[in-house]
Structures are given as C-alpha cells and as structure tokens.
Amino acid sequence: MRQFIQKFNNLIKNTIFKVQNKTIDKFQISNFNKYLIIFISLLFSYLFYLSIPVLYDKSWVQRNIENQLSKEFKINFSISSNISYRILPAPHFLIKDSKIFKQVNDKTVSLADIKDLKVFISQRNFFNKARTIIRYIKIDNANFFLLRNDLKLLRNNTNNKFSKKKIEINKGNIFLKDYLNETIAIIKISKAISFFDNKNLFNIFDLKGEVFNIPFSLKYKKKFNSFKSEEINITAKTLKLKFFDTYDKKENNLNSGKNIISFLNHSINTNYKIKDGVVIFNSFNSKIKNSKVVYNGKLSINPFDLNLNINLDDYGLLKLLDINLILNELIKTELLFNDNISINTLVTTNSNIKKEFFQDININFNIVNGKINFNKTRLINKKIGLLELDSSNLRFENDRLILNTDIIIKINSSNELFSLLQTSKKYRKQIKNILINLDYDFLTNQIKFNKFKIDNKNLSDELMGVVDGFNDNNSNNWNKSKRLLNTLFDAYDG
Q1: What is the pLDDT of residue 24?
Q2: Angle, CA 408 vertex, CA 404 and CA 413 arms, to 5°
Q3: Is residue 302 classed as helix, strand or coil in its secondary structure?
Q4: Cβ(342)–Cβ(367) under 8 Å?
Q5: If phi over 0 gives left and psi between -120 and 50 gives alpha, with beta otherwise, what is residue 422?
Q6: Mean per-residue pLDDT for 156-181?
Q7: Residue-wise over 45-71: b if at least 16 C-beta within 10 A, else e?
Q8: In angstroms, how far is CA 442 from the centroid of its own chain?
C-alpha cells in the first residue's frame, strides 16, 4: 500500500510539473516580439504627443500665429478662426481664408487673399504651447493685388535680409494694377519660394509662372557682402528669351552692373553705372542676328529722360523695318504718349549690301512733352541723293495710329535716278528736289498725299491722280513704283 501511494504521488508531481513547464514555454516572448511591442508603444506615444496641439485654444493659436508671422516675416497677416491641426506630412495648422494687408493713410488695404495658409511648427515642445515655433509656411491658392507703389515697397524690402524660414507659394495669381485699380497684367504662379540662405548670405526668391500665356522662371539673389550684389535671371523657353542682370552697390553712391538679354539670334549686352539717379550705359559684344550693334546713352528715371545712340553697322533698311514692327506695337499701347517722358534716339546704319537702296540710314526718334516725331531722319543713297523727314508728328486719331510728315527728297544726280527707274531718255528732266506731305495710317497701311511739289512747283490735279496710285501701300512693289514714277515724269512739264 505504501509503495502504491508513493507511485501515485510521483505520477501527480510529474504530471503537474510537465503541464507547468508547457505553460511557461507557451507564454515565453521572443526578442522580435519584444521590440515590436516597444515600437508600437513608442509610435502610439509619439502620435499622442503630436496630437497635443489639437487641445490648444483656437483663439490663442490665432493670436500667436499672427504675432509670429509679423515678427518673423515682417508681413501683416490677418488669419481667420477657421483653423484645423494636421499631423501629415508634418505637424502644421491649416488656416482657411487669410489675408495680407498694409496700412495706407490709417486705412487697411488688402494685398492678398489666401485660400489655404499652412503654418508648419517645430515638434520640440508641444507640452508648453508658449514655446511653439514656426518652421516655415506654405501659401496655396492665393491672389495678390499689387499697385506700382507696392512693387517699389517690395523692391525696398530686398535691402533687408529675408527670414531664414521659407515661404512657399503654390498656385496663385498676381494682379498688377494701375492707379485706377484696373488690371494691366496677370502673372500666374505655379510655385514660388523665398528665404535667406544663411550659409551663403543670400536673399533668395525663385518663381515659376506664366504671363500672357508665356511660361517663365525668375530667380533673384542678393548677397549681403560689402557690395550688396544682386542677380536676376529670367528665362522664357518658348520665346528663347534669357535675361540676366548683376548689380553691385558701391561707395560714394556709385553703383555698377551688367545686363545681358538674349532673344532668338539676338544678344544685347550692356555695362552700366548709376549715380544720383542717372544711368550711363554702353554696349559690349552685342549683335542682332549676325550684325554688330554698338550703343551708348544716358537715362534719368524721374522724370524719364533718355538719350540713346545706336549704330547697327551694316544692318539694312529691310531688316530695320522688322525692328520697327516691335516699336509700332509699343507705340500703339499709348504708353509713350506721356508728358513726363522725354526720349531722343538716333539709330544709324552703314550698309554695303548691294540690294539695299539706301546705304546710310539715320533715324531720329524723339518724344517731347508727349509728342512723337521723326524729324531729321535721313535715308541716303550715295549715288542719287537723300530723303529726309521734317515737321513730323505721330498721333492717335479715332483709335488709329497716323504719321503726318514732310518728306524732303534732294536729288544729287537725276541721271542716276532715271537710270535706276529705266526712264526713257526723252522724258528725262533735270530735277533737284521733291517735297511731299502725307499721312500714313499704320493700321490700314494706307497713304494720303496732302501736298506734292517738284522743284517748288505744285503738281496739277492730273499728276496728283498719278501720285494717288501709291495710296494703297499693301499693293506697292518695285515694278509698280517704277511704272507710276515714269508716268509722273512723263506728264511733268518741268
């Protein structure tokens, strides 16, 4: 009996210990599981920590952000109470319908309407909201409204260091307005960024956008060294246009710089100096297509006064007319018809191209008290004589651009003229000068002859009828011109 009890006791012990050992083995945790549990715990703790700003009072957040934005970026923001907190992609406050404003004569004027303002904040101490620090901001879907004085204000602000913290703008519009609050241009922003590069001591502003349906990029850098040098790069690939300007501010109120503009096969390169509001400039290595260009001049900004001399070397009249097309479009904007603008420009060429009728060209373009003239413009044929404009006036009349001018033609050799026109010898008469007064309509390309004199004699009505054959400049060509001139000389009694 005793042996039986001993065996039973041993069986119970073995069974209990076996189950106990199996239970211990069953609940034993591997190292991987330990690390996973720790990671999940830390993750939830971190997410809980990141969520703490949700508990901040919204009115406090609104006041604190406005104060920090004003102090850090020197920008007056007015943010709404529509504020939400987001963790991703980084902790930030999303603020709907904010504004940027300025004070003008004790009035608050809006500079920008911002649909979404994202203020990204530092994660260092969410337990103490008073120590909340802005890292950078993003502006999405904003409209900026800028007058001319606002552009001056922005220009002056570049003299101060930007914030080290970035301002990023995504998808916006800049409305450039005149003094009547009329929009004159819209710049579409795809992306822009602004900050101070503390390592290289640069103010940096980069913008990618579109104006007049032309994509472009603008890069601005200002280095805070002894010269406070500036660089501007503008590129418009569709126009094959590149603009580069570098500028150094030196002592004694003397500043100097270099400007390079390349467009298609043209390259306009300029050195300039600025002192007391006057710009003195000259060209270097400039060319239009394959023709060398040399120019120099002086410019005063306030009031606007420009004296400019341009030598186009062997650039012919036909090529010069292509440039005038651009000038025509500028004139049509009426920007040059301004009493505060004064321009005196001389363009000269010396062509050796055989097919060019005029070898020497001197074009005077003048603006005085809002009136435009081409007086003293001369086109010279070395064999025949010269053509000169006098008493000219360019004006707008019923939305049409019209030039009225006297054309004085001085003939040095009638024989050379008649030889060129292939005039029959029996109709050749000695002619010394021709005076024409006409109106030329740039819109319709029509010519109206008001006066026509040969050697100080007025033409008869019959001969004026011949001259009127030139009225439609669209149909004028060399063969037609020769025929009409020969008809005129045939009928002219001398």
Answers
A1: 47
A2: 150
A3: coil
A4: yes
A5: left
A6: 88
A7: eeeeebeebeebeeeebbebbbebbee
A8: 28
pLDDT value of position 166: 94
Q: Which residues contact 372 (CB under 8 A, 6 or more apart)?
A: 331, 336, 337, 365, 366, 393, 394, 395
Over 60: is that where the pLDDT of 272 sits? yes
Q: Tell me the C-alpha distance between 87 and 48, whole Å.
A: 11
Instruction: Report the run of H or E that residue 206 belongs to, with start and end.
Output: strand 202-211
Rounded to two decimals, what is the model's pTM?
A: 0.66
**What are 299's two structure tokens?**
């410019």
Give CA–CA dist 483/357, Å, rounded: 17
Give 444's contacts (C-beta < 8 A, 6+ positions apart): 400
Per-residue pLDDT at 468 exceeds 70 = yes
- State how far the alpha carbon of 142 is from the alpha carbons of 190, 207, 318, in Å: 11, 14, 47
Contacts (Cβ under 8 Å, ≥6 apart) of 457: none
Residues in the chain, overall count: 494
| Confidence class for position 441, pLDDT limits 50, 70, 90 | confident
pLDDT in tens, 52-86: 898 899 899 999 999 999 999 988 999 999 999 99
According to DSSP, the β-strands at 291-300 and 304-311 are antiparallel
Q: Average pLDDT of the chain?
A: 83
Residue 132: CA atoms inside 13 Å, Cβ hemisphere, count?
24
How far apart (Å, rounded) are the C-alpha atoms in residues 317 and 306? 24
| Residue with token string 């999940």 | 40
**Please, how many CA atoms are within 13 Å of residue 173, restricted to the half-sphere of its CB?**
12
Q: How far apart are CA 8 and CA 21, in angstroms?
A: 20
Angle between the N-to-C axes of helices 414-421 and 478-491, in degrees from 0 to 180, rounded to the nearest 10: 130
Q: What's the chain's Rg over C-alpha atoms? A: 39
Burial classification of residue 335, based on how many CB atoms lie within 10 Å of its CB (0-12 exposed, 13-18 middle, 19 or more buried): exposed
